[in-house]
Design goal:
Radius of gyration: 17 Å
Structural class: mainly beta
Strand order of the largest sheet: 11-14-15-18-17-16
Number of strands: 18
Shape: globular
C-alpha cells in the first residue's frame, strides 16, 4: 500500500491508499520491473484488516519471526497474515475466496510511536513490524534473513561524490502496476496478480528519514520502481535493507518513490525492540 502524496505538505498531506484494498479487484506489483521468483525469498506479502476492510502490503524478514514493513501498513492493523510464496493468494481473512491458511503465518503488528498518519514529507517515521506467531522457516525451510544496513549507511551515500544518479537500489514487493489494455481506450489500467517483483532505480536524494529514488522504466539507469501494494517492501543495496517503501508522487507510479530509512537513529531505536541491530 504505497501512498501517493500531493505536492503541498503543510498540515495533513492528502494521500491515496498505497496499501491495496483486497476487495477492489485484482492487484499486481513493481512497475516496469521483473518477476522476482526466488531472487528475494525473504520479501513477503503482508495482509491485514483495518476497520474490517482487508488490505495488503509487503515486508521483509529480518529475524526468524520479525517482518519489517511500513508504519501505515501496521497502524490499526488486525487479522495480520504474512506469506513468502513468490505468487501470493488471497489471505485467510479475505471476504471472498479466502486463501489456504497453511501458506500464511499470523502475526501481531506494531508501529513506530512517532508515526501518527499526519506526517512531514521527509520525517515520516513510517516504519512498523509484524511479529510472527512462529518462525517463517516452519513453512519456508531455509528462508534467508535480510540484514539491516548499518547505522547511517544512507548518510554516507549522501556525502559520497556523485552518489546521486549513480547508486542503483533494488525495490521488491507485491504491489500493482499499470498497463495499457490490448484494445479500446488506451488509458493505463491497474493490474494486480499478487506476484513478487523487483526493479532497480537510481538514487535521487537522501533527506531526513527518507531516501528518494528516480523511478521510470524509460530511464536507462534503472528498470522501474514501486507502486501501490509495494508499501513496506524492501529497498536493497548490496544485499542490505536500507528502507521500506513508503510513498510516491504519481498516480501511475512513475517519477519519484519515497522510502522510509531503516538506518536512522529513530528507526533503529524502534527496531531494537524486536531484533539485534548490526
Amino acid at each position: 500500500m504505497r501512498r501517493t502524496v500531493t505536492t503541498t505538505f503543510a498540515g495533513t498531506i492528502a494521500v491515496a491508499a498505497m496499501a491495496v484494498g483486497l476487495t477492489s479487484g485484482p492487484t499486481a506489483a513493481i512497475v516496469d520491473g521483473a518477476v522476482d521468483g526466488t531472487l528475494h525469498p525473504g520479501v513477503g506479502m503482508v495482509t491485514y484488516l483495518r476497520d474490517g476492510t482487508p488490505y495488503r502490503c509487503s515486508g521483509t524478514l529480518i529475524a526468524p519471526t520479525v517482518v519489517v514493513t511500513a508504519g501505515h501498513c501496521t497502524q490499526g492493523a488486525t487479522g495480520v497474515f504474512v506469506t513468502f510464496d513468490p505468487v501470493g493468494q488471497r489471505a485467510p481473512n479475505a471476504p471472498t475466496n479466502p486463501g489456504d491458511p497453511a501458506r500464511f503465518i499470523p502475526g501481531t503488528a506494531s508501529t513506530h510511536p512517532d508515526y501518527v498518519g499526519s506526517y512531514r514529507y521527509d520525517d515520516l517515521h513510517d516504519i512498523g513490524v509484524v511479529v510472527l506467531d512462529r518462525s517463517a522457516d516452519t513453512v519456508w525451510p531455509g528462508i534467508p534473513l535480510t540484514p539491516l544496513a548499518p547505522a547511517g549507511a544512507a548518510d554516507r551515500l549522501r556525502a559520497g561524490n556523485g552518489s546521486a544518479g549513480q547508486t542503483l537500489f533494488t525495490t521488491v514487493g507485491y504491489g500493482v502496476f499499470y498497463a495499457k489494455p490490448d484494445g479500446g481506450p488506451q488509458k493505463p489500467t491497474v493490474v494486480s496478480d499478487r506476484v513478487r517483483r523487483n526493479a532497480t532505480a537510481p538514487l535521487q536524494m537522501v533527506k531526513g528519514e527518507t531516501i528518494k529514488l528516480a523511478e521510470n522504466g524509460a530511464d536507462a539507469r534503472g528498470t522501474g520502481g514501486s507502486c501501490f501494494g509495494d508499501s513496506g517492501g524492501a529497498l536493497l543495496l548490496g544485499g542490505q535493507l536500507y528502507g521500506v517503501t513508503s510513498f510516491g508522487a504519481s498516480q501511475f507510479c512513475i517519477g519519484m518513490g519515497g522510502y522510509q530509512r531503516t538506518d536512522t537513529a529513530s528507526a533503529r531505536e524502534f527496531l531494537a525492540g524486536f531484533v539485534t541491530l548490526p
